[in-house]
## 1
Amino acid sequence: MTKVPMTPQELEQQDGLPPGPRGWAMLAIALGVGMASLDTAIANTALPGIAAQLHATPAESVWIINVYQLAMVATLLPLAALGEVVGYKRVAVWGLALFTIASLGCALAWSLPSLIAARLLQGVGGAALMGVNTALLRAVFPAKMIGRGFGFNSLVVAVAFAIGPTTASLILASASWEWLFGINVIPGIFAFFVARRFLPATKLSGHRIDRLASLYNVGAFALLILFLGDCAHLESWERLVPEALAAAVLFALLLRREAGHPAPLLPVDLFRRPLFALSSLTSICTFATQSLAFVSLPFYFETTLGRSPIETGFLMTPWAVMVAIMAPVAGRLSDRYAPGLLGGIGLALLSAGMVAMLKLPLAADAFDIGWRMALCGMGFGFFQAPNLKAIMTSAPPGRAGGASGVVAISRLLGQGGGAALVAYCFTASSAHGASYALAAGAAFAAVASIASFSRLAVAQPAF
């Protein structure tokens, strides 16, 4: 018997999926988001080996990383907005298909240009997945359980980012770099078919995508990321000024083009809501803290403390473990307590953990490092799900795509900005770069905590 599509009225009244289909839908979302998050960091570890095998210089090989990040940041908001027009399920399903095919292309790459081209497509596929995943959660989970859904999603994203270097090291210990990308193929195919079968249809917005605005968006965010990276590496003013001016002009053209639009690609309409704006600021600052820690600490552990790469991977593990423990707990608590309170407490713990890492003694043993990393992970895990819920529930249901895009773009901007700051810290002082980065991370976490607590004075909008 052919299943009759639900009407817009039925879609609007539907409150989540039944338990069985909900589990399969969450599995599809988790696989897609997990692969996209893992590939944000996993290639860093293998970069020297890839460069040597493809006969590329270090400067050329950096584009293996940069093009993935540029593609994700540049296309994320347009793809999130496309989800409001054609359906979040369709964007997620085709994002999975593109990401999987591109992963196979990366594994089969025969030259640096072919690998960069495949990574670019992989970044676009990842942007499609990251751009609509939180919007899909609102359709997958009943309203009374949405905090649990966001907690699970936060767990997947945080753990994937945290275990990226360790996973890469384990793969490279027994296989060639091609397997860093090849491991995505079978899970990607499986997730594609599960997503087609179980992801729910959602109500369409009725708006149309503005192609010129999308081009402005792609150019503006790509130039912004290039500018941040070049600033970190102290490039010349002759390069920095044109990048900054071009990005500013494109952002201005984008805002002018979409002035008065009911669903703009760059969701300025949502940023007029204080709770949404504060939650986005909190997210950017917190992911900057995470990136400052995870990019700088391996250098500190290996160079200053003399640990091996494998030992470093294990020393980073307590952060991920505590996120895994705390994220579901915080998700459940966010269904009962204000996100501003939970997030503020978690970020205060994260800032304290970063300060503790900064004061790590030179003769530190594994326990000294472990409890400090665990404190950071506890604070980070306690923040993420409540903040995600605050962002998504402060936007009207019809703008869930735009809100979902902001969730992902805030995370990527924070991580990208944090990585750029680490590069700047090491450029300023090779001996004390890690300490400077940790101090900056503690400051960002403190600002995020203040921003989170300030949400307690802001009323939650009613829809």
Note: The two ends are 37 Å apart (CA to CA).
## 2
Amino acid sequence: MHAQTTQTGSQSISHPIQIRGLNKSFSGQSVLKELDWHIEPGSIVGLLGRNGAGKSTLIECLLGLRDADGGSSLLFGDNTRQLSQATRARIGYVPQRSDLFEWLNARQMLDYFRQLYPHWNEDKVNSLMRTWELPFDKVINKLSVGQKQRLSIIRALAHEPELLILDEPVSSLDPAGRRDFLRELIDSVIEKQTTIVFSTHILSDLERVAMNVAFLNHGRIVHQQALDDMMDSTVRVTGKTQVLAQLTPKRTLSACRNTGTQGEDSVLAQFEPQQLELLQSRQDMRLEKLGLEDLFIEMTR
């Protein structure tokens, strides 16, 4: 399969992530089902799904850390099962659980990884180690869970990757640590047009950094959209069946029949601003704006 590309002047840039028909099952239970997904260069995508939806499995298959049962996935045009060393050097990854060399101290571990990457920012490493008050000479398995997660983040950022994949990167950090990490992400990564995939269950953190959200449900990416556009244009409309049948939304996200005690139906849909104005003036239906948490629940039923 040929990598899809984006034309920029005379240059042709492969999509950082391109997935087609990805399948993965465990003990006969399908987790990923004919999953298609691609991400544009410079995107910051929040990957959302309920616990057990397959977010970590998707990320591991994408990185070649777990074999898929079918389909294909490409990173910068390279098949993820046979990534070149040059492509690996363009990728940073923070796993949900620490995969550090815990018998080494932080200095030894960072020195090891520095040899693997042609672009290693030692000033960034030293600055973050000081800011987050991490000891260079303490054996890693003696660090707290939060300190290990910070060290994983430093390792992932040190070589200034073009694609950064974060699987619940701040789940073990306290609120101050999460704030510091997000500030670092915004200050030193986003301004470099790094492509970021950010899986998290902390929706308030996601809202601070994500440009786009992608919902993983029933083994597929069921919806992906710019976060601001989704929040502005999406409403739940409730009313009689025949009234809702007259609606002409630009996109219907989900529908629910016989809600409440009045035999009404509801639909989660997106409308143009002019349509929303007209709908708000009608007496035969009710409109409700939803926050990201409510949208998450609706999109992952």
Note: The chain has two domains: 5-218, 232-299.
